[in-house]
Structure formats: structure tokens, C-alpha cells
Amino acid sequence: MFKIIDQKNRNAFEEDISCFFSLECKDKLASDGQAYDHSHSVYIMHEDPHTGLKAGARLNPMTSKNLTSDTLKRYVKGFETAGVWECSLMVFHLEDAHPIYDDTRAFHRLCNQYYENFRETMITACVRFKIGTLLFFGYQDEIENLQYFGEMTFKPKLALEDNLCIALFQNPHRH
């Protein structure tokens, strides 16, 4: 089940957000230690009790404090405007010993379901928060998973060092 968590419903989901940050510390290159978690942050969260998958993403307006602007100032100059948000924190976590890893087809189905639903939930969040463009900052394989499994289209994609990249997603329902 996917949830969109924002300032209005955040108190009901503090435990989910806390879990999200603990998974981020396990799975990511470097934790930002919640430095970019603030009142404007929006979270797309997912937890599947059948598979144990815990996943999600954090979105921040480019006009507020955000990791992408602080880290990649020269690449994102001009994107710090209303309607442009960043997604710089994505987590997809299954316990290492989960049996689904042994069944390639089952794992592929899980990825397809997750990323397709993630895309639809992301578009819903874009409409709700008037996001025209999402600037994704993450590992290349994360972006490739969004493209392959979630059928998301990015324009353009800029490769950076250490297997990182920036990719732009245009909300197909923007007005």
C-alpha cells in the first residue's frame, strides 16, 4: 500500500518516516541525517506485509532547503523555481535473505508492481502539490529501475561521478 505523507498528515505517520530514515542508513551511499526533512517535505511510502518490501522516496521543492541544490549547485541552477521539486532520497529494501531473491520471476513481478504503482503515486503527488517537473538525483541503477520497471520517461539524464546521475521527469498531467 502506498501513502503520500505531507505536513497535514505527518503526525499520523511519524513511525513510518522514522523507519524510512533507518532503511536509508542501511541502503544508501551516505545518509543525509534528516537534514533535508522539513515542513515542505513530502514522502511517498510503501510497505508490503506479504513480501516485507519497504520502500519510498522523499520530495522537496527546489525553492526550499534540498540536497540536490546544496550538492549540485552548478548543475541545477535555473531549476530552483516554483513547480520544480527534487527527489533525492529513494529506498527499496528487502531483507538480504528474503526467499523472493531466489525466484527471479517473482522478484521481477514484485519490481514491476512496485515501480508501476510508485509511478502512479508519484503522478498523484505531482498533481496534488502542483509539481510540473521532478528532478531525480540518485544512483544510475535507481533511475534505470524507474525507467525499466516503472516505465517512467526522463528528459534529459546527466551522468555524474560515483555512479550518480540527475534525471528530469515531467508530470504528464501538469497544466
Please explain how this structure is put together.
The chain has helices at 14-27, 67-71, 73-76, 104-128, 140-148; strands at residues 2-5, 42-47, 54-61, 84-93, 133-139, 157-159, 164-170. The longest helix has 25 residues, at 104-128. It has one domain. The chain contains five helices and seven strands. The model has no long low-confidence stretch (mean pLDDT 87). It has 175 residues and is α+β, with helices and mostly antiparallel strands. It is globular, with a radius of gyration of 15 Å. Helices cover 33% and strands 26% of the residues. Strands 1-2-3-4-5-7-6 form a seven-stranded mixed sheet.
Short description:
Helix content is 33%, strand content 26%. The protein is of the alpha+beta class. It has one domain (2-132).
Which strand-content bin applies to the residues?
25-35%
Largest sheet: 7 strands, mixed
* Rg calc: 15 Å
- Termini distance? 28 Å
Strand elements, count: 7
Mean pLDDT: 87
Helix content, binned percent: 25-40%
Order of helices and strands: EHEEHHEHEHEE
Counting helices, strands and paired strands, the structural category is alpha+beta
Biggest β-sheet: strands ordered side by side in the sheet: 1-2-3-4-5-7-6
Number of domains as seen in the coordinates: 1
Number of alpha- plus pi-helical segments: 5
Uncertain runs = none
Shape: globular
